[in-house]
Amino acid sequence: MKNLKMLSRNQLRTVNGGLAQPTGDYKCCWKGTTNCSTTVHHEHGTGGDLGCVKGAVLTPA
What we know:
The chain has a 4-stranded mixed beta sheet, with no helix packed on it. The protein is globular. It has strands at residues 14-16, 24-30, 40-43, 56-60. The chain is mostly beta strands. The protein has a domain at 22-42 and 55-61.
């Protein structure tokens, strides 16, 4: 783990790549609640995918 780059909070708010979701703003919300994460911007393309942790649902912001 010697080549890791520290990312700022602002860098974590943009996600590049993805197969299923179109470009836009997304957030992860716990199933059945209004408890959601901070919104991130997703730049659609190839080489990645946007998702949430188990128990949360990816939702357009």
